[in-house]
Amino acid sequence: MQPNFTLTPAALKFMRRMVRFSETPAGGFRLTVKPGGCSGYAAEFTVEATPRDGDAEQAVEGLRMFLPAESRLLLDGVTIDHVDSPLQSGFAFANTKGGSCGCSSSGDAITPPAEAAVSLSSIKRM
């Protein structure tokens, strides 16, 4: 299943920069998303040369993305943004399906940026 999700220009720019400045610039951006309750999703990412077992590869405007099965299910119908301000930095997710969580908060609002774990070995200085 290929999820139907949208990357904002800011998210696409961030992902492309991570791949370009990694040890494997011909690789792909692996995004793992897990449910985070009412606060939205928790996201982790790495830059990898090839997809891992169970990952699906999806091209988005020339960017290779590697998505694990659970992430593909969660990202269907979601808009992914990247927020970078002096107070916060990370991915923000908006569910366009209009679902809601158990605490009655709106599911169509963009959630605060999720924490992202970055492997420093996947980034290099130029």
From TrEMBL:
All residue ranges annotated as the Core domain in the record: 5-96
UniProt xrefs under InterPro entries: ATAP, ATAP_core_dom, Fe-S_cluster_asmbl/transfer, HesB-like_dom_sf
Pfam families: Fe-S_biosyn
Taxonomy, superkingdom: Bacteria
Family the entry assigns: Belongs to the HesB/IscA family.
Name of the protein: Iron-sulfur cluster assembly accessory protein
